[in-house]
Amino acid sequence: MKSFKLFAAIAVAPMMLSVAAPAMAQNYPLVAGDYAQITDIKIESGGDYDYANWLAGQWRKNQEFAKAQGWIKDFKIWSNVYSRSGEADIYLMVTMAAIPDGPEGARRREAYRKFVAQSDQQLAAASGDRGKFRKVLGTTLLQELKFK
């Protein structure tokens, strides 16, 4: 009898949760907003000027293209004024309304390749060249939560 009651409780629990979840969602005080992709950059010693020029040139041009396509909403550069050992010096932030799915991501990559008129191999080599004056420490994807 005890095992039957345990089985019944286990069987009924998911149904109870499925009823409670929509009710909880209606009362939840936060809603999902935009995404922010933040890339942490450590600038190599003596690389400040070269990296600043790249950011003001090609990076900005790339972001303006993405913004004109409606792929992103905004982009910013943040400086870590008091960076400690191991922390990034610069944070590159890109804000977007949604994350593209696989086919949309492929379409965007192709449009971007046409925009910059470079092959994947050339783009990879250019990224490697930037390694002379910067190191990517990591990238974080955040989603804003807004009050209802």
Tell me about this structure.
A four-stranded antiparallel sheet has the order 2-3-1-4, covered by helices on one side. The longest helix has 26 residues, at 2-27. It has a single domain (30-147), classed as Alpha-Beta Plaits (2-Layer Sandwich). The chain starts with a helix and ends with a strand. It has four helices and four strands. By secondary structure, it is of the alpha+beta class. It has helices spanning 2-27, 48-68, 102-116, 120-130, and strands at residues 30-43, 74-79, 90-96, 134-147.
Question: Secondary structure elements and their pairing?
Answer:
Blueprint: H1 2-27, E1 30-43, H2 48-68, E2 74-79, E3 90-96, H3 102-116, H4 120-130, E4 134-147
Antiparallel strand pairs: 1-3, 1-4, 2-3
Summarize the structure.
The chain has 148 residues and is an alpha+beta fold. It has helices spanning 2-27, 48-68, 102-116, 120-130; strands at residues 30-43, 74-79, 90-96, 134-147. The radius of gyration is 23 Å and the shape is globular.
What is the quaternary state of this protein? single chain
Report helical residue fraction.
40-55%
Give the class-level CATH name.
Alpha Beta
Q: Order of SSEs, N→C?
A: HEHEEHHE
Total strand segments: 4
Any idea what the radius of gyration is?
A: 23 Å
Structural class label: alpha+beta
Share in β-strands: 25-35%
The third-level CATH topology is Alpha-Beta Plaits
Question: How would you describe the shape?
Answer: globular
Q: What is the CA-CA span between the terminal residues?
A: 47 Å
Which CATH architecture is right?
2-Layer Sandwich
